[in-house]
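ping. complex inputs:
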Amino acid sequence: MLVLAIETSCDETAAAVVRDGRTILSSIVASQVQVHAEYGGVVPEIASRKHLESIVPVVEEALKSAGVGIDAIQGVAVTRGPGLVGALLVGIAAARGIAAGRGIPVAGVNHIESHLLAPFLEQEVAFPYLALAVSGGHTHLYRVDGIGSYAILGQTQDDAAGEAFDKVAKLVGLPYPGGAVIDGLASSGDPAAIRFPRPLLHDGSCNFSFSGLKTSVLTWLQKNPEAKSGQELNDLCASFQAAVCDVLVGKTALALERTGVRSLVVAGGVACNSGLRSAMERLAGQRGVTLHIPKPALCADNAAMVAVPGDYYLCRGLAGGRDLDALPSWPLDRITRELAAAGL
Ligand code: KG4
Ligand code: ZN
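pong. complex structure:
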């Protein structure tokens, strides 16, 4: 099946053409980062307007770069949530319009589900696997038993890991979004320079908490106001990143132990982090677990990943119909309960 996938949950307008939920024919991402950087974070109203401007050209570009006409598309997959409601509505309206115009089905897809299944665009992954979803809005551990079958093992009690990166970047005057910038500076810093706390690391749960860590950085900065540049800033970034990675790796190790699962996926924007990627490689090596971290372009928001669950649901007639609403908050385990209730 040739699927056109659309993603507009936050500040990236993205469209992709994917064959059989596996082969990317095109993947176009129009980022609004520059526009929001001026405000130090995503402004929802501006995001919606930018999606409106970009959605048609981005879809056209995806078709053109795949070398296919709209008449070759057999189904549409679109992010239904979680995300910013106004932003989601733009993608959903475009998807519904295309599907209605062409008389083809449209499936609404969960954004986190797309992140967790992104590795399938590179290689098959055996079920069950443990998945750590780390993005600007999520820090969740799931056991993935199949497409549509997700059990939540732990989650952040406050800020998401990406949010912590972005907030700490703001504290030291770095541009939004701060994750990649901190990652870059951390590579020249000493991760042992400042001993920041590792929140909840030894509480015996698979949950996370990052807001206290952000406060620790703030308190440290108040005592060391000169540390906002040069080597001291690099050391601060490296020390903060090390604290985040230690917790992410520690909790993932605990979840691996508890589930006995032999395969691990790390996904979402924060999975681009070089420190986290190498720490997870070390963990997987020590535990003899197979690790899949998609390439950075497939970890950050994109539409190709939407086609993985989208194709699956479209092929099984589980498309949500043409009356898809946006679901700004849509816990992933609800999908599993709903599919089970429907006997699927
Ligand atoms: O998955 P994503 O693109 O969008 C959401 O669904 O949230 O994730 C965006 C988040 C931002 O918080 C950004 O700062 C973070 O991912 N991020 C990183 C890196 N690249 C992006 N965080 C740490 N290190 C990076 N290299
Ligand atoms: Zn995302």
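The domain at 126-293 is CATH 3.30.420.40 (Nucleotidyltransferase; domain 5).
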